Amino acid sequence: MNRPNEPEAQAPARLIEDLRALDRRALFVPPAVDERLLAEARRHLAEGRSAAPPWRVLQPKLALAACLAALGLLAALFVARSPQFAREDLNRDGTVDIRDAFALARILQTGAGHDRAWDFNRDGVVDREDVDTLAAQAVRLPNGKQAEVKDAAGEPKNRNAALAKDRTPTPEDAS
Amino acid sequence: MAAEPPVDMPTEPGSGFDHRADEELVAAANRGDAEAFTALYHRHRDWVAKLALRFTGQPDLALDVLQETFLYLLRKFPGFTLTARLQTFLYPAVKNLAIAAHRKADRFRSDPVELNDLPAPTPQPTTRREELARALAILSDEHREVLWLRFVDDLSLAEIAEALKVPLGTVKSRLHHALARLRQDERTRGYFAP
What we know:
The complex is a heterodimer.
Chain A: H1 13-22, H2 31-47, H3 55-79, H4 98-110, H5 128-140
Helix pairs in contact in A: 4-5
Chain B: H1 22-30, H2 34-56, H3 59-74, H4 86-105, H5 113-116, H6 128-137, H7 141-152, H8 157-164, H9 168-184
Helix pairs in contact in B: 1-2, 2-3, 2-4, 3-4, 4-8, 7-9, 8-9
């Protein structure tokens, strides 16, 4: 709708109505997605992680960490062969966390694939119980990480978390 | 004086209705109140979902973006300070995560599917909204984006500037040019007729 205090940003009412109609596609969010996200929220908030250090204290450390990470990445590009991902790392981001449980749930829901390696509870079938098992594994350790990805040289290859606490995610986080 | 609760709070069956404003919910979540985060989630989930679908054009990618966005928000707690509307804070996260999701899927699109994947012009008469969709498709991403944010998501110009991390003058300029293009376009000039 138009705002009276923004006379430079007025549009005809019918145009606004039609714009909203064009954008009316709704996305169905399965209840299981809500449940997993909110379960992760309960776990995370219950842990009562320590508050983030002051930004000013953290900034030089982050800058140094970023430089070291860049150097490490350059070195890895020259020596790395095909990365070997943990079987729990379904989304191949180098970290085993709740996102991998989400990925397995989506695969099962859409029937997009099947792999015996996803039988995490070893009951002979790949089903929702394996999603729960993977989710439980992912959250068991304090930092949520359980498996370390190593490259062919045997060096740890942990990607920086795509969602570092104090940084808006950027498209480069996926690359 | 207590902050007024937002007027467009969605409700979820069985979840109750939380009258607290976003600022209060954020403060409570910072203290470890999971129900406060739950209320924030239900309040903003559908908007994030719609925005994710607008950017990705694909429901499965949009679901990924939805989950990643709220995980990103969750990792901000404790210690999160809300300095603007939560939608203003979430918008760049949704946008960037959608772009990242496209890159992962090797199917990057810069425009929403429903605006660009339109059938070729046919002799049959089209509806007014179809004409609008075609006119919007030839706007630049930046011009179209401010139209959505201002008239569909109902953000103020200042909020749009903050969400896009551009000066307020830039937002005004983009919006001005977007409306001017629609006014000049023969398919949409009828909206502006007196």
